[in-house]
């Protein structure tokens, strides 16, 4: 079952439950996926769907940070609810320890020895962890293990 089918089912459920917040977020996700599908010109693969979801989640997290810095609690609550809904459709997130293990294995595989190999390690580890861990966490883990 594709993500679009899942979203359509959840869209119907949100309409019946009159859940305006979920309805809005699901429509937004569906729209983002359909736009991406039009841009690439074919049905999206699972990886492409995860990329779109990750992008939407990242946008919301950045908005959350901005609203918190501005002291806008009314907007913070709404964005937190949106993040929770988007996270339901993301793959299971790995723990910090699992990310650290995968990064350590990748460093060993590419033969990285220091900070100069950061780009090489990131290029190798990001496809492995795509959608399963936050990019900032991966970045910090790679930096700490290369030091």
UniProtKB/TrEMBL annotation:
It holds the Pfam family YqeY. InterPro entries: Asn/Gln_tRNA_amidoTrase-B-like, GatB_Yqey_C_2, YqeY/Aim41, YqeY/Aim41_N. This is GatB/YqeY domain-containing protein. One of its GO terms (molecular function) is carbon-nitrogen ligase activity, with glutamine as amido-N-donor. It comes from the Bacteria.
């Amino acid at each position: 079952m594709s993500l679009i089918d899942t979203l359509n089912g959840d869209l119907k459920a949100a309409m019946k439950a009159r859940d305006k917040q979920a309805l809005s977020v699901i429509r937004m996700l569906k729209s983002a996926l359909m736009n991406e599908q039009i841009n690439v010109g074919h049905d999206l693969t699972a990886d492409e769907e995860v990329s779109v979801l990750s992008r939407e989640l990242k946008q919301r997290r950045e908005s959350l940070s901005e609203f918190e810095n501005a002291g806008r609690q009314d907007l913070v609550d709404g964005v937190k609810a949106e993040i929770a809904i988007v996270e339901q459709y993301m793959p299971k997130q790995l723990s910090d320890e699992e990310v650290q293990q995968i990064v350590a294995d990748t460093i060993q595989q590419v033969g990285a020895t220091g900070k100069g190999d950061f780009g090489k390690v990131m290029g190798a580890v990001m496809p492995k962890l795509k959608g399963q861990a936050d990019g900032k966490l991966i970045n910090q883990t790679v930096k700490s293990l290369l030091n």
